[in-house]
Amino acid sequence: MGCVGSTVEPQGISVETHKFVNANNAGTLANSARVKLKTKADDFVTESRKLDSIYFGLNVPFKEIDVRSTLGAGNFGVVYEAYCKGKRVAVKKIYLRDTSEKSSDLQDFAQEVDILSVLIHPNIVHFLGAVQEHPNYCLITELCEGSVLDLLKLVESKKARATWGLTLDIAADCASACHYLHTLNPIILHRDIKAENLLITELFRCKLSDFGLSRSLEKDAIANTVCGTPRWVAPEVYRGDVYSEKIDIYSYGIVLWELFCFKKPYLDQDPINLPYMVVHKNLRPPLCAHIPEVLHNLMKSCWHPDPSQRPSFEEIRSLLDEARQKVILTLSIDTTVSYDDAVAQFNRKHSNTSGMRVGFGLKSGLM
């Protein structure tokens, strides 16, 4: 993540997968996930309520952080798996390039604490506290089991398979989190929505994370800071225009493409030329043939060049419900035939069927 001062994409955090899938159980991730989602819905609510009751405060002594392992690192700092007061947590320790009290790093840290500390939603990572002990500044949050990016990598390496239902659930969870942000007063712009910032719990629920670039937008306020991760940045941000919450909807449209095409966007594009192509040539990721038209249309509406033509997250949630009704929900694809042939056979046979689930074993590469 970062402000786009150039078109070189900043290094992102790479979070390890803990419990998704291993080589010995590399069957259909979707099947196990759906069982968990159906049978553990109450557990998800219960766990969320338990987390709501845990709060360590804003001045946790750094000595109370028991670091166990490094989960990932980026330009902003490093993320650890740790224990705090006997609870297993994630700890993000920021890098201080400037140690003065007016450091922009400290201002960004304070901004993220301010935002996270007031957000309460089941699809947003739970904020548990902070360390503000110079030079140790840390955010403490719940620990998830990986990210959507990890999930996509597992699919690529054939250690997991996904289903329409699971990916629709992830898309819906993300949309719910963003809808919540955009209905606050003042609204919150996330400004860095991407697969890497969507965490997955052990119950296969999606939680939006990393609010380091997020900002509140007061009524009639002007936002035009060029921030975000280049491949997910809306054209109006590149142009330096005044922008609104619609920039998050653009980024969400790119995430939808990642979820349903299982690829990283714009791999064939020169990063230096990408902003020009997005702004002046209306470049968008190529649509995948196996995706239902309703999802194609949703993606295209989300990344529409005119922000006013993009749907709200409330509308997106309704469109996802419509997509769920139009996507096959129960049929497993025969793995003895090629993926493309299976999809073609499936579409010919069930083009007008609704109410079932399809597992799609992916062969396409990723990253």
Automatic annotation (TrEMBL):
Keyword annotations of the record: ATP-binding, Kinase, Nucleotide-binding, Serine/threonine-protein kinase, Transferase
Coiled-coil ranges per UniProt: none
SUPFAM superfamilies: Protein kinase-like (PK-like)
First and last residue of the signal peptide: none
UniProt superkingdom: Eukaryota
GO MF terms, alphabetically ordered: ATP binding; protein serine/threonine kinase activity
Ranges of residues in domain Protein kinase: 65-320
Residues reported to bind ATP: 93
Family (UniProt): Belongs to the protein kinase superfamily.
PANTHER family assigned to the protein according to its UniProt record, in alphabetical order: MIXED LINEAGE KINASE DOMAIN-LIKE PROTEIN (PTHR44329:SF298), SERINE/THREONINE-PROTEIN KINASE TNNI3K-RELATED (PTHR44329)
Protein name, per record: Aste57867_19081 protein
Lineage: Eukaryota, Sar, Stramenopiles, Oomycota, Saprolegniomycetes
